[in-house]
Amino acid sequence: MVEYGLLIDQSLCMACRGCQVSCKQWNERQAIVTTNVGTYQNPQDLSWQTWTFMRFSEYEEPGGKVRWLFRRELCRHCENPGCLAACPVPNAIVRDQGGMVIVNRNLCGDCNRECFYGCPWGVPRFPGTNNEAWKCWMCRDRLYEGKPSACSSACPVQATRTLEKSVLLATAYERLSIVKQKHPRANIYPPTGYGSNVVWILVDSPEHYDFSFPTTSVSSEGAKPAAKGFLSEAARPMLAATALTAGIAAAAKFLDRREKVARAEAK
């Protein structure tokens, strides 16, 4: 089975948001009402209706020069997904043979949003106080028909490309060697060794982009506020304990969910 990934080249990206619009169109996500808060970033974060968007950031160099950067935000489709490991319901989140991390609509929802807190970037989002998770699924339906993802197809400059995973990193580093000629601080993200099926080519150091855990938008959707940044060493044992507790309850949750689905189908 062929495994797929996305290469996002920020040296080519114009922040036109074509990927954002095509994602909504193909996946039938609704447009949302937004507010101008004095930034080009719009909307401000992911949501259950918005699975990818352009994140803008600025930083000031020691000499006073301000750098303006932007990048796409979306699910990384990890090789060892934190969302899947934290999910207490068997098969509610799966990683299929094509490398896509998928939320199973028939099983998801009977939890306390463990997938959000298990993801280092807090990607899964929820409608209101509902615990059913939504996120990018890498256009699994298109890929299995031999088509690129909707975002790749819509990009006018091929800043996003759908590639076979076997050539994803090699293609990224080949392109990086060219980008570095103009942007010496260009880099690959995530760092080498982190298994991700989505790879960025950044024109500056990764620390100058906002790759932090969300702090506001999810709490406004009903979740508890989260600490900014990646999971700390102190937090990891806590997450492991939570996952163990969730595992003990998984069978009961799964059976309860199956009964609910059976009752709904009977009606």
Figure out the total of helices. Answer: 8
- CATH architecture assignment: 2-Layer Sandwich
What's the CATH class label? Alpha Beta
Q: Give the mean pLDDT.
A: 84
CATH fold-level name: Alpha-Beta Plaits
Number of domains: 1
Walk across the major sheet and give the strand order.
Answer: 6-1-8-7
Order of helices and strands: EHEEHEEHHHEHEEHH
Strand content: 15-25%
Q: Write down the Rg.
A: 19 Å
Shape: globular
Count all strands and give the number: 8
Q: Uncertain spans, ≥5 residues at pLDDT below 50?
A: 219-255
Q: Percent of residues in helical segments?
A: 25-40%
Query: Which class best fits the helix and strand makeup?
Result: alpha+beta
Describe the largest sheet.
Answer: 4 strands, mixed
Textual characterization of the structure:
With 267 residues, this protein is α+β, with helices and mostly antiparallel strands. The protein has one domain (1-267): Alpha-Beta Plaits. It contains eight helices and eight strands, in the order E-H-E-E-H-E-E-H-H-H-E-H-E-E-H-H. The protein has helices at 18-27, 82-86, 114-118, 140-143, 150-154, 165-179, 217-220, 235-266, and strands spanning 4-9, 53-60, 66-73, 93-95, 101-103, 160-164, 187-189, 198-202. The strands form three sheets. The protein has a four-stranded mixed beta sheet with strand order 6-1-8-7. A hairpin with an 8-residue loop joins strand 7 and strand 8. The longest helix has 32 residues, at 235-266. Mean pLDDT is 84; it is low at 219-255.
